[in-house]
Amino acid sequence: MIPSRRKATLAPDPTSETGAVAVLAVVTGDEVYGFPLSAVREILVPPPIAEVPRAPESVIGVISVRGQIITLLDLPKVLNLDVDQGPTYGRVLLVDNGEELIGVAVDRVIQVYRMEPEHIEYASAMSAELSEYVVGVGRVAAGPKGGERMLILIDPVSLFGG
Amino acid sequence: MSDPRDNVQQEFLAEAQELVEALSRDLLLLDEAHRREERTDPALINEIFRSVHTLKGIAGMFGYKHVGAVAHALEDLLDDLRLGRTMLGQELLDALFDSVERFQKLLVLDDPQSPLEDAGVQAYIAALRSIGIAPSAEVGDPLDKYSIDAAVLSVLTEYEEHRLRACIREGLQLYRLRAAFDLTAIDDSIESLRADARDEAEIITYLPSMEGGNDDTIELVVLLASRLSERDLKTLFEARYGVVERIAERTHLQTLPPQLTSIPAAPPSMHAPTGEDASQASARSVANSVRVDIRKLDHLMNVVGELALVRSAVTRIVDRFQVESPYRQSMMDLDRIGRTFERQLSELRTGILDVRMVPLGQVFNKLARIVRQAAREHDKQVRLVVTGADTEVDKLIVEELTDPLMHLVRNAIDHGIEPASHRQVADKPNEGTLALNAYHKGSSVVIEVEDDGSGMNPHKLRDAAIARGLLSPDVSDELSRQEMLNLVFLPGLSTSAEVTDMSGRGVGMDVVKTNILRMGGMISIASERDIGTKITITLPITLAIIRALIVIVAGRTFALPITAVREAIPYMPSQVRTIQGREVISLRGETLAICDLARLFGFRGAKNQGGRFVVVGAMGNRELGFVVDELHGQQDVFIKSLGKSLSSVSGFAGATDLGDQQVALVLDAPALFAEYFDGAERVRALESRP
Question: Which of A1, A54, A67 sits opposite B305 (nearest CB)?
Answer without folding.
Answer: A67
